């Protein structure tokens, strides 16, 4: 292991006949967010569960830097990982501060350290002034932020966040994103599962796309986009509806009514010649817009399906 803080190899989990996850490999590095992107039912939570030790894999291994694994040192392994589960897990009728303390107590933290860390993590997620209030009085976003504080109290190197923006208002979401950026700068390794490609695009340094329990692609965003036939689409609005034969010689051009959709590798390079070729054919251009490829396009190209149902 060079710079990796966690390496998962060949993870597999079946529930009866249904294989939820198979042949999943993942690598985490300090200071990086790994986006685990896939539609509902893809196997994201099952994967996260196997990494944090809540779900026992049928096959495969997870090893931390220094060789620590659940088999060699379960307590040591778990101390290095924090989990923000998909379903919020809090004691609704206990004060927020006590919730954090209970999580810390699970890791056997000394009382003085625990109190200091409790105050630190509550401040970090913007709940310092709500420490005495019960989660039952909190909004969805506040509960999620408290759950993040609970996962961080023991100062883990690795933080797993399973769809942490579900049921969260935009303000809390931005606060969560700011927290994650800060954790990244502090050298933590983060796993962020989501079915929102916008979130993966915004947060992730590297992305693993998972579908039907299998990794279908992984890499930096630029590497994933490079797998597409075109990085960008030009939308050209034209006057009239020319005969398609007239456009036949132009590569990557699809016409729908008075609009041409043109796949291009590089707008700066390809837009000029395209417009010149249209002018030469007597096609009048009324407007032009461009759209870059998204992870949705990558998912579609790899699986033939949309990311969202
Ligand atoms: P995701 O988090 O990507 O939505 P999950 O990991 O929750 O996906 O689920 C992957 C597949 O495994 C789904 O088909 C789901 O129905 C199934 N599954 C997950 N957990 C269980 C379980 N405890 N018992 C039976 N099937 C499960
Ligand atoms: Mg899930």
Structural commentary:
The chain starts with 5 loop residues before the first strand and ends in a 6-residue tail after the last helix. The chain has two domains: 6-225, P-loop containing nucleotide triphosphate hydrolases (Rossmann fold, 3-Layer(aba) Sandwich), CATH 3.40.50.300; 232-292, Alpha-Beta Plaits, CATH 3.30.70. By secondary structure, the chain is α/β, with parallel strands linked by helices. The strands form three sheets. The protein has a six-stranded mixed β-sheet with strand order 5-6-7-3-8-9, sandwiched between helices. A four-stranded antiparallel β-sheet has the order 11-12-10-13, covered by helices on one side. A three-stranded antiparallel β-sheet has the order 2-1-4, covered by helices on one side. α3 packs across α4, α3 runs parallel beside α5 and α4 runs antiparallel to α5. The longest helix is centred in the middle third of the chain and has 16 residues, at 170-185. The chain is built from eleven helices and 13 strands. The mean pLDDT is 93. Keywords: ATP-binding, Cell membrane, Membrane, Nucleotide-binding. This is ABC-2 type transport system ATP-binding protein.
């Amino acid at each position: 292991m060079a710079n990796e803080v966690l390496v998962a190899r060949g993870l597999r989990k079946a529930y009866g006949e249904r294989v939820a996850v198979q042949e999943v490999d993942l690598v985490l590095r300090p200071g990086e967010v790994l986006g685990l992107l896939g539609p509902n039912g893809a196997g994201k939570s099952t994967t996260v569960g196997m990494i944090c030790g809540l779900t026992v894999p049928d096959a495969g291994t997870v090893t931390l830097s220094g060789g620590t694994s659940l088999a060699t040192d379960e307590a040591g392994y778990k101390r290095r990982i924090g989990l923000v589960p998909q379903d919020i897990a809090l004691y609704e009728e206990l004060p927020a501060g006590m919730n954090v303390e209970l999580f810390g107590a699970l890791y056997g933290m000394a009382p003085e350290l625990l109190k200091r860390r409790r105050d630190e993590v509550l401040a970090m997620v913007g709940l310092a002034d709500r420490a005495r209030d019960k989660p039952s009085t909190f909004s969805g976003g506040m509960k999620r932020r408290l759950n993040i504080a609970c996962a961080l109290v023991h100062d883990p190197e690795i933080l797993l966040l399973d769809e942490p923006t579900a049921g969260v208002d935009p303000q809390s979401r931005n606060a969560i994103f700011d927290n994650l950026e800060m954790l990244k700068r502090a050298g933590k390794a983060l796993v962020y599962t989501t079915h929102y490609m916008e979130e993966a695009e915004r947060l992730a340094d590297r992305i693993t796309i998972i579908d039907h329990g299998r990794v279908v692609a992984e890499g930096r965003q630029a590497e994933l986009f490079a797998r597409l036939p075109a990085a960008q689409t030009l939308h050209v609005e034209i006057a009239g509806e020319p005969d398609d034969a007239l456009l036949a010689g132009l590569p990557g051009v699809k016409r729908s009514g008075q609009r041409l959709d043109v796949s291009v590798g590089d707008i700066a390079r390809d837009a000029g010649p395209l417009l010149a070729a249209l002018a030469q054919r007597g096609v009048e251009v009324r407007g032009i817009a461009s759209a870059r490829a998204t992870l949705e396009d990558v998912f579609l190209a790899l699986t033939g399906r949309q990311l969202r149902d």
